[in-house]
Amino acid sequence: MSVNDKATVEKQYQTSKNLNARISIHDKYSVNKQGFGNWITSQYEIEEGMAVLELGCGTGSMWMGKGELIRKCGKLILSDFSEGMLEQTRETLQGCEEIDYQVIDVQKIPYTDETFDMVIANMMLYHVPDLSKGLSEIRRVLKKGGRFYCATYGENGIMEYIYGLFENRMAKADYVYSLTGMSDLQKLPREELLKVLEANTVDGVLRVPKEYGMFVAR
């Protein structure tokens, strides 16, 4: 399955259930206790009064506890192509009246040229059917000298590790269920998955690599 298959992605992110499952696993078991969201937001160079657009905001969890950063924005729009995700984001960030929430398709951003000082699109560009069109739209709505932030997976991360365990087998569990790119591993029962995972533990611990990075375009 291609991860930018529109129907599959829409099903995957119709609600926040799958994304919440992944966030929960990361929060509970990540060795780096700074946290992925905290690391991402620490990269942002937001100056007073900036107009900021986030595409594919997911549950909005990366903005939790970031009131000072939010208040620095002259305009902050959190968007997703899924209304279900935006409902979760509103709930996550309730009380943050400075935020505007909108359903937006990155391939057709409903703003005029050079509207934003900053555009954010983390962990979502690999879902875009026409990536060139999406990137063109992002460039169009960025002001001259504006910044574009996009975090993504590295080459040696969770999915590659799990596929390696199941090179000749297929299975499923909460995390595997939640991953768009894992449809081939969702055909065997949970018990089979657990059996394989347990066989790869050392002293009761399963060490799963995570590799992420961020591009900053100016």
Structural overview:
- The protein has 218 residues and is of the alpha/beta class.
- The chain is 36% helix and 19% strand.
- It contains nine helices and six strands.
- The protein has helices at 6-12, 17-29, 36-43, 67-72, 83-92, 131-141, 158-165, 174-178, 190-199; strands spanning 50-54, 73-80, 99-103, 116-120, 142-153, 212-217.
- A six-stranded mixed beta sheet has the order 3-2-1-4-5-6.
- α5 (83-92) links the parallel β2 and β3 (99-103).
- The two termini are 33 Å apart.
- The mean pLDDT is 81.
How is the secondary structure organized here?
Elements lengths: L5 H7 L4 H13 L6 H8 L6 E5 L12 H6 E8 L2 H10 L6 E5 L12 E5 L10 H11 E12 L4 H8 L8 H5 L11 H10 L12 E6 L1
Parallel strand pairs: 1-2, 1-4, 2-3, 4-5
Antiparallel strand pairs: 5-6
Determine the N-to-C terminus distance.
33 Å
Principal-axis shape equals elongated
Q: Evaluate the radius of gyration.
A: 18 Å
- Spell out the helices and strands N to C: HHHEHEHEEHEHHHE
Classify the secondary structure makeup into a structural class. alpha/beta
Question: How much of the residues is beta strand, in percent?
Answer: 15-25%
> Helix count, per DSSP?
9
Unreliable stretches, pLDDT < 50, 5 or more residues?
none
> Main sheet: which strands, in order across?
3-2-1-4-5-6
